[in-house]
Specification:
Metallo-beta-lactamase, Chain A, alpha/beta, single chain, 14 strands
Length: 313
């Protein structure tokens, strides 16, 4: 995930990305910017890892995807960026040559998870998401952190089936439970739990190996991220494979360490804010320092994350 790709949206991505990067470069100090990576989604191969008999982790340019195959048809979680659609379809064909369409579930509204919606819909997939995902995709969405407004998605990219709190699906020999998180990373986040396979996709509730991006404009908060962790911990057992929105496959123990990190940073920033320090003064005190060596080289810089924590307390 990177600032170039995060701003990408469909056929107009080129203009939007260039404009967004110029604005971002002018508006933010270097230490408070996301770290750029210039890989083109259309050229990044999708790596496939088998998680269970008919369940696969797909990792390419955007957020982590999960694919279930079987006689009932494919079920895909998330759809990366629009230019990645041919790569996604190649990955599906490699494990399910006869597959023709199926269901696509979006974990939340961001374009590194929904950019491929229109292309996958054209390939025969019916899109399912939280009701607020459809609402946010239907209208322009300001991204405060990036000083940019994401344009509305085309009709073919919009979810056709929406949930509010939960949904149960029986497909390809497994029971699948979909559940909404209270506002955390965004207000559109959902988890998808394959009960038989014991695989849990939590979307961007977890950035495994880096500081998370929290979307303030979509009601995301550090407190919400921590509270969402209670839901993750309740769903997962010690043997559950947890698929994060970004980063390597994880498990309950790994997620617990991540959540403990969020709590520790939240508490440090909260204490500084309560003592009257400004956001800039708090960032200068390096409240994330104990974790920077382990996770500070990801998309989100330490200073940027500390600022988000300060603002969303």
């Amino acid at each position: 995930m990177d600032r170039r790709h995060f701003l990408e949206m469909g056929a107009t991505a080129g203009v939007a990305v260039v404009a967004g990067e110029k604005i971002l470069a002018q508006a933010m100090p270097a230490t408070a910017r996301p770290r750029p990576q210039q890989a083109d989604p259309a050229s990044v191969p999708v790596r496939t890892t088998q998680l269970h008999d008919n369940l696969y982790l797909l990792q390419g340019a955007g957020g982590n995807m999960v694919l279930e195959t079987g006689a009932d048809g494919c079920l895909l979680i998330d759809a990366s960026f629009a230019p990645a659609v041919p790569r996604i379809r190649e990955a599906i064909a490699a494990v399910a040559p006869a597959a023709a369409g199926g269901l696509l579930i979006n974990t939340h509204w961001h374009s590194d998870h929904t950019g491929g919606n229109e292309g996958m819909h054209a390939a025969g997939f019916t899109i399912i998401a939280h009701r607020l995902t459809r609402e946010r995709l239907s209208t322009p969405q300001p991204m405060r952190l990036f000083h940019y407004t994401v344009p509305a998605s085309p009709p073919g990219a919009l979810p056709a089936i929406c949930i509010d709190q939960s949904l149960a699906i029986w497909r390809n020999g497994d029971s699948i439970e979909v559940a909404h998180f209270a506002p955390a990373h965004t207000d559109t986040d959902i988890s998808i739990h394959f009960l038989k396979a014991d695989v849990l996709h939590v979307g961007d509730i977890w950035f495994n190996g880096g500081y998370p991006f929290i979307d303030e404009g979509a009601h995301g908060t550090i407190g919400g991220m921590i509270r969402a962790g209670e839901q993750v911990m309740a769903l997962a057992s010690a043997s559950t494979k947890i698929v994060p929105g970004h980063g390597p496959l994880g498990d309950r123990a790994g997620y617990e360490k991540y959540r403990e990190m969020l709590i520790a940073i939240r508490d440090r920033v909260a204490a500084m804010k309560a003592a009257g320090l400004s956001e800039e003064e708090t960032i200068a005190r390096k409240p994330t320092a104990a974790f920077d060596e382990a996770v500070g080289e990801g998309f989100m810089s330490a200073d940027m994350f500390a600022g988000i924590v300060y603002r969303t307390l």
